[in-house]
Amino acid sequence: MSYITLNTKKLAQNYDFLNHLFDRHEIEWAIVAKLLCGNEIFLKSLLSVTDTDICDSRLSNLKKIKELSPETKTVYIKPPAKRLAASIVKYADVSFNSEIETIKALSEEAFKQNKIHRIVIMIEMGELREGIMADSLPDFYAEVLKFPNIEVSGIGTNLKCLNGILPDREKLSRLVNYRRNTEKLFKKKIPYISAGSSVTIPLISKGNIPDGINHFRVGESLFFGTDVFNDTYIKGMHKDVFTLTAEVIEMIEKPMVPTGKVGKNLTGESPEYDEKDRDKTSVRAIVDLGVLDIDVKQVYPLSEGIEVLGASSDMMILNITDDKNNLKVGDEINFGVSYLAVLRAMNSDYVDKKVVNSIKIKNRSEKAEV
């Protein structure tokens, strides 16, 4: 059976790298853990390296985090469904919001549960995903202040995820002004501006983070060492926290070009072939991994001389003609993986999850909340 491995030691080193970076710039941060899909083995690994707040966009994942570590502060990072208000208050210490009626429901549930539920008001900054329009912030904030058991701990925004809109100093400065004007108007402090994410990290070293942007939400850069802004990697961070492994279940020399009338394959494509390869052969290996488990375009063999040719539902086909490792049936092949590849594998019950280089759980300490 194929499996995905998380290297706890490398994850811890990436965490320490980011933690020192944010500490130097007096920025609080929280980890976006939705990539782990609530997997208990991997969540325990994450919790062993961090005492930082954990963000997720799936309620079941936050519930699992609270079961494993009740003291961990949890953040629900998409506008909640109104009907889930009771569970949001129960399992999320903080939620991101953009609808008054939902906040009203959260207020009612927080009162019933004898809790203070904290919210971040999300503001639209060009990405056209979640968030209120900026000019409606004063009226929106005034309505929120009427609700008991609700505390506004910040304003925030989301960039890059839908339309690829990148953060810049001008957008971030506008957020700082929105907070300043709102605080002045209502004579009430708003502690945080949660406007940073993995894509915003490169702006720190360039001095393009204005004073006042004091909270980041980071997932991809932590787990993959990626510089999302420049589509590269951050020097000093590991890009191989995750490894995907699959077993060779067939290895036979076959023609390079298929024969017969070509229709559409499983994914709706009609593969094209170079006719000059018509009479050539290659050594093909099949591994126990397919499109049910991964996106073929988001994985890459870690050994030289291996080429991914394609995949069906539960088998991936490789060209190993130039393999120098003398692979045979029963051997394992390791693959590097992107964010989307890990996300797909984590959602597959057919891919086992393993942890290596476990470390002793840290003593947890109180951290500032969003």
Automatic annotation (TrEMBL):
<dbReference type="Pfam" id="PF01168">
    <property type="entry name" value="Ala_racemase_N"/>
</dbReference>
<dbReference type="InterPro" id="IPR029066">
    <property type="entry name" value="PLP-binding_barrel"/>
</dbReference>
<dbReference type="InterPro" id="IPR000821">
    <property type="entry name" value="Ala_racemase"/>
</dbReference>
<dbReference type="InterPro" id="IPR001608">
    <property type="entry name" value="Ala_racemase_N"/>
</dbReference>
<feature type="domain" description="Alanine racemase N-terminal">
    <location>
        <begin position="8"/>
        <end position="225"/>
    </location>
</feature>
<dbReference type="GO" id="GO:0030170">
    <property type="term" value="F:pyridoxal phosphate binding"/>
</dbReference>
<keyword id="KW-0663">Pyridoxal phosphate</keyword>
<dbReference type="GO" id="GO:0005829">
    <property type="term" value="C:cytosol"/>
</dbReference>
<keyword id="KW-0413">Isomerase</keyword>
<dbReference type="GO" id="GO:0008784">
    <property type="term" value="F:alanine racemase activity"/>
</dbReference>
<protein>
    <submittedName>
        <fullName>Predicted amino acid racemase</fullName>
    </submittedName>
</protein>
